[in-house]
Amino acid sequence: MRFLKTTVGMCALLGLACVTGPNNGATFGSTIIGASFSVSGYWVNPSTTIQVQVLSAPSADVNVDANWQTLTTVTSSATASNINGDLLYPWNATIVPVPSSAFAARWPDGGLVKLRARSVETDGSHHTAYTFDEVTWQSCEFSEYGNGTSGENIGVRCQGLGRGVVAMVSTHGNPADLGTRDFLGLKDDHDSNAYYLAWGAPQTLTDFKNAFLYPGLGSEIRAVYYNDGDLGIGRDMHCWNYTLGFIAGTACYVSNYSDTYQLAKFGNNAVGPTLDHAIDHNGPFATVAMVTQHSTIFTTDPGPVHFAAYGSDERLATEAKLDNTGHHFSVPSNCLTCHGVDTGYSSGATFSGRASFLPFDLASFKYSTTRPGYSRASQEEAFRRLNALVRNTTAPAPAITSLIDGAYAPAGVGTLGATWNDAYLPSAWAGSTTNHDYPALYNGVVKPYCRTCHVSARTFTTIDFAEATDFETLKPTIGSVTCRTPSGALFMPQAEHPMRKFWASGARAYLNAWTGDTTGCKP
Question: Has this prediction a pTM greater than 0.90?
């Protein structure tokens, strides 16, 4: 928990105090009862009494002092530390928020606990400290400190969503394990065979390659990675451009691997063995192909985007299993869940909207650490070429274009040697020097759990999350489709792997602090 002390109307020096851990959004995966935590920080004055408190229940009103219970009382040191010219006095404590089951209401298993620190001044007044967010504090602190910003202003500029409250997240009881989740259930299932017949899907993977002039190994763009952003599998990706008379487009096929030969497993996180299988072409459980087709004459017509799934025997398959439950597997519906979040399909190859090739988000992948040529560094140029290919497909969704352009700025995705910027933050999410709410929401929620799929929205751009105003518009509903874990298909994230990761993260703390208990993420 990290705090910055401030009170309106007080001496400016009161803005100097801070606490050093844990932060808002920190996670805890062990048994809560009896668990102890180290809390430490600084105060603006020496020998000042500091109370570390816990909220009686995470849904209680944080603005009512009677709802806070003191866990321990400590005193700031008499010896100061100099933080860029500001004198601060350290303090530290050990707390046990839930000493026994009698206090379990403070921190429900799988829920949030809310903490704060406040001073007891010589005149009897109390001053509550600011908090900082796990996903923004370190980068903000390092940047501001390196720029010579005073301790006072570091705290003001880096304060987090919780303001005077820090929420820690228990990661027990992940709802992805409950067995009732309807993963990928927002799109209607359809007859895959009818879809294949309507667009003339090639019957084998070899037929697909031949139909779209596969240039062969060494001529296509290839990358091998573990897709930790959405599916949790190893992927051997191959893409190329083609021209057939008056029709041109982009074609890709990606073979999918787990750590077990030809077995569809998702999110098992056995990255090394999984990537070895992908590198060696050893036992893919399926291959998914995607192709765009547009007229070289009528350049304003983007043409269709088609999908096909091939089994371990490389023959056309009617099922595209993308999670461990396999409740939904039809093509193209399973594909559209991510490649076209606002795109629909009805029998007869009739689409509402248009799917997109997705960007290759290097920050969300894992790479081989043992096989030469398959590290991130070794493949960075291949990924740049893949992202250039996606950027140059006919009519990519607007958020896809802006993400690729932003992540490769200033050189641009078309520049040889340009690299993907993992820390890219869209200007429309930048917040301000005194308000890091939007950067925390983007880095703690949107980027790891939403962005991969939502960038494909092209008609309903409110859900492409390219701007913070999108989140503001949807503020009353975002929490209700994430943290409240409703039954049925209306929940986010839609895919099993990112949902599992969402519930194992501090994302709920950020959403709860931002939306409030009544409009969004319940503790």
Answer: yes
